[in-house]
Amino acid sequence: MSALRFNQESIESWDANAEFWDNGVGEQGNKYWKALQLPTLKRMIQVKPGSKALDLATGNGLAARWLASEGASVLATDGSEKMLERAKLRHSAVYGDNISYRQLDVTDIAAFEALERDPIAAGGFDIILINMAIMDIATLEPMAKSMQGLLKKDGVFVATLLHPVFWTSGATRNIKITDDASTRQSVVVRGKMIRKYLDVPPTRGVALYGQPAPQVKSAFPQLARIL
């Protein structure tokens, strides 16, 4: 699959899934956000009042709202127009003018260049975040090239994602249920059979069961060279 087709399909799937995904994650986030993502972000990012933040692939604005609640001024962006609409609908008066919104495709170098020229990016950002989205992005080069012009010299860039073992394609999920006579309880053991790892082609799958359209995702050969 070409990078262009990957990107087009990724954005189309997020447009199709926007309402379903937003309803599933909600305004305050799901258990996964609360138990894993948010505590991890708090460890990695020290948000100071008045910090200037750029949230890439904001989705329904969950991370942007957290940054704003900590006192940051946030520009929330996403390549999916429909997801950005859901983020705007989640915006409440409590955030005031601390969050602004902009459609931005992170695979488009021209979009980053336009942002660099925009007064909103003057002086650079203290924080640039892309949370749980790298696996949905066709190419990382435009984003990487743009960091020098958008991130302050003493700023922090944070990109988070699950370890690829959890979403690499071609894996089989197994569930084993046994009865423990001593406790009279059922014991559930979940596992995965992984036949290929990291260097695998893009695949289509679901993140939330019941979503209208499958998502295209990739384990990224770039990550294989890093991990």
Can you offer a commentary on this structure?
- The protein has 227 residues and is an alpha/beta fold.
- It has a domain at 3-160: Rossmann fold, CATH 3.40.50.150.
- The protein is 35% helix and 25% strand.
- Helix 3 (62-69) links the parallel strand 1 and strand 2 (73-78).
- The longest helix is centred in the N-terminal third of the chain and has 23 residues, at 3-25.
- It is globular and about 65 Å long.
- The two termini are 23 Å apart.
Pick out its properties.
227 residues, Rossmann fold, alpha/beta, 9 strands, five-stranded parallel sheet, 7 helices, two-stranded antiparallel ribbon
How are the SSEs placed, and which strands pair?
Elements: H1 3-25, H2 31-44, E1 52-56, H3 62-69, E2 73-78, H4 81-90, E3 99-103, H5 109-117, E4 125-131, H6 141-150, E5 151-160, E6 172-180, E7 185-193, E8 203-205, E9 215-217, H7 221-226
Parallel strand pairs: 1-2, 1-4, 2-3, 4-5
Antiparallel strand pairs: 6-7, 8-9
Helix pairs in contact: 1-4, 5-6
